[in-house]
Amino acid sequence: MGSEKELKYIDTTPAPKVSRASLVKMIWRSTMLQASFNYERMQSAGWLWAMLPGLKEIHKNKEDLASSMTHNMDFINTHPFAVTFVIGIVLSMEQLKTDIQTIRSVRISVAAPLGGIGDALFWYTLVPITAGLCANMAINGSLAGPVLYFLILFGCEMALRYGLMYSAYNLGMNAVSTMTEYAHEFTHAASVLGVFIVGALIANYGGGTELGMVIQNGESPIVIQSYLDMILPCLLPLLITLLMFFLIRKKGWTPVQCILLILVMGIIGAMFGIWKGSYTPLFQVPWSVG
């Protein structure tokens, strides 16, 4: 437990509103939120870097500024695209010279659920949809694919950063209730949409993963892939995806380990003619390559 001096600012007179120039500077600095990411305090260094222009404008007392910088180095982990929402709320509390413990509590209570909401909205929805559309353009040789991908994601990101900063800073503590009122429903809906998109991507980009095994049966050879398609189209990429999910979720595998496993499966499958493709297997196998 800290002393009373540590929990309350010396100068408790509310400061004037932070200038627009400082707000803009904080928005752009927030893009570096994870530049000094570490597993002790997560995004704290990037958070303080983003907060500094506003804190310097608010706290003219050097001891208050030091206290504010110290508690703004506390552990924090939220979604990088939506961090300006938390910044705006905390900045409004700093401007009102709210006691430090309250600022700490609000910061962590807002940042944590916002991370989940942001993940559902961006990593599970916007990014897969945009990547799926633009990757298809790039595969077809269009330079517009990667350019469009950057413009869409960066444009959405910066529009969100600006919008959340100004709205949260102007709303202050009222922004907390606005965010939490429908947080559960919003997160659930975004997650469902994200799962739907991931399923579509599996079918679209994993559809080329097929078995090349054909069992000779006189004039009616047995094509294994045809039987799998009758059970469920794109069954093989679905099973591989579920295997990766199982290994990561239940066995604690890392994405790098999963990538290496897929690489090994691809090499061994090509050597023995398991996968369908325009190549000649290195080893004789009891089936022919379709």
Structure report:
The protein has helices at residues 4-7, 20-29, 44-58, 62-71, 83-95, 100-139, 144-171, 174-181, 183-205, 224-231, 235-249, 255-271, and strands at residues 213-215, 222-223, 288-289. The protein is built from twelve helices and three strands; from the N terminus they run αααααααααββαααβ. It has two domains: 4-196, no CATH class; 211-289, no CATH class. Helix 3 (44-58) runs parallel beside helix 5. The N and C termini lie far apart (72 Å). It is mostly helical and 290 residues long. Strand 1 (213-215) and strand 2 form a beta hairpin. The longest helix is centred in the middle third of the chain and has 40 residues, at 100-139. The chain has a three-stranded antiparallel β-sheet.
Layout of helices and strands, plus pairs?
Layout: H1 4-7, H2 20-29, H3 44-58, H4 62-71, H5 83-95, H6 100-139, H7 144-171, H8 174-181, H9 183-205, E1 213-215, E2 222-223, H10 224-231, H11 235-249, H12 255-271, E3 288-289
Antiparallel strand pairs: 1-2, 1-3
Helix pairs in contact: 2-3, 3-5, 5-6, 5-7, 6-7, 6-9
Task: Summarize this structure as a short list of keywords or feature phrases.
290 residues; mainly alpha; three-stranded antiparallel β-sheet; 12 helices; 3 strands; disordered N terminus
